[in-house]
Amino acid sequence: MNPDVRVRFAPSPTGLLHIGGLRTALYNYLFARHHGGTFVLRIEDTDQARYVDEAEQDILKSLAWAGLHPDEGPAVISTDEKTSDADATGGEAKNISRIDFDTDIENGQGAMDGEMDYKGTFGPYHQSRRRSRYSMHAQQLVDSGHAYYAYDTVEEIEHMRERLRTPENPNPKYDAQTRMQMRNSLTLSEQDLQELVEEGAEYVVRLKVPQGETVPFEDMVRGPVSFETDELDDQVLLKADGMPTYHLANVVDDHEMKISHVIRGEEWLSSAPKHILLYRFLGWEPPVMAHLPLIMSPSGGKLSKRKAEEEGIPVNVRDYRRDRYERDAVINFLTLLGWSPGDDRELLTLEEITREFSIGRVGKSGAIFDFKKLLWFNEHYMRQRDEGELAEELMALIRERGLPGKESLSEKEQALASDKDFLAGMVRLLKERVSRLPEFLEAGGFFFEAPAQFDEKAVKKGWKEDTPARITRYRDQIAGLDDAAFRADELKRILTEMVEAEGVGFGKLMMPLRVAVTGAGSGPDLFGTLELLGRDEVTGRLDAALQKLG
Ligand code: GLU
Q: What pLDDT is attached to residue 78?
């Protein structure tokens, strides 16, 4: 156990949490749990322009749904949404506690004004509430000569780019090469600067990246990595609105929150050298870094939103929550999206994963998001669950979104939709045939309503001239059964007896019977289906089919 291990998940609330973001959170969580350390959630909400209101709630709810409860961070999930998600997950979301801590909440005009509850003593855990720290450290960097004030307008910078653009350097940077030609505290005279200050001119603070240096560091996933400072621009640290950029805020907070390991996606690797420089200039020890492999689409290339959409892969965690994916399946799948236990085991419990997890076995090359595999995990975990429990989830799902393809529910459908035994029966019959909870309703629509149409192919194949007479005989026999006798085994016995007496194959009766009752040529166990539908419903459907199909 190592209480010095402190990791963080630091999402920006700019949109719904991406499934790749959940993997980052998961790896941080696993690393913390494996080492007996602390898992921190920090909301990086300094980009006011890209702030999305519902994004933060979505992040909190998604983490709660996945069971990745932060030890420190914002502790509130808005109550109305908490109820619906708690329903959906068997109460998981309730585990988020509302603990009040004494934190030095600033009165900044961040995106998250108002009272906040936090768990942990390193708060506030919203960057918008930590503004004074960033400006203080930016000042420190200016004072020590590692940063400077820049007064250039967007047009001036654009003008510089145009002027210096060459085929070899199509996008000239604001850097050691160009900064001396710009309007900043390195080039302006004392007097000009004084005037600008008096005018209240807008400025940004830029990092003074040294020229001709190599910045090496050891990445836990990638091994030794190094970047040339000549490739870096003089990164803006503090924007004109006084808000820090990601780089400054991230470094200041990781330091102040005593983060020991930074575990994040590979897309941040190129930012790491800027961060390393910042740590050096601020006189701080940088955390150990680990950049997780990119998530790739099965058809190649990064799994972008657009690509995922094209390939029918849901990318927002909210989609997984709404479609009631199995939490254990998603966790198991995401764990293996970049990490391996070192042998060919695939089904792993959270306990096993936590015990065995190490960054050393995270791969360098892109991890392919094999959606079919995810469905395979989902089937596996779903089939292991109690039928009554799944029935209750189905009930909640119908309450939430009705039945597929229906505007509203009839009285009968409503009664069935709140009959737990009936839904559990459906689950039993369909369990081996579906991979996701909503598919029970897609595959089992006929349980709620008699078929309005009959599958043409199946009718052609199975509904022959002698079928109506045979169906009628069977119908009359089973109509005489009392409720207790209307069971799958008895229904099967009667059918077997009939086909044997008539010297025909099983299918002669099974096939048209299925079509008549369900409308389709294939489906779950027929006798179980008849039993669940009940005598009156089955005989009614047979009568209707006989009328329609002749
Ligand atoms: N706010 C960044 C993000 O949205 C955090 C990156 C990091 O972990 O340093 O992913």
A: 55
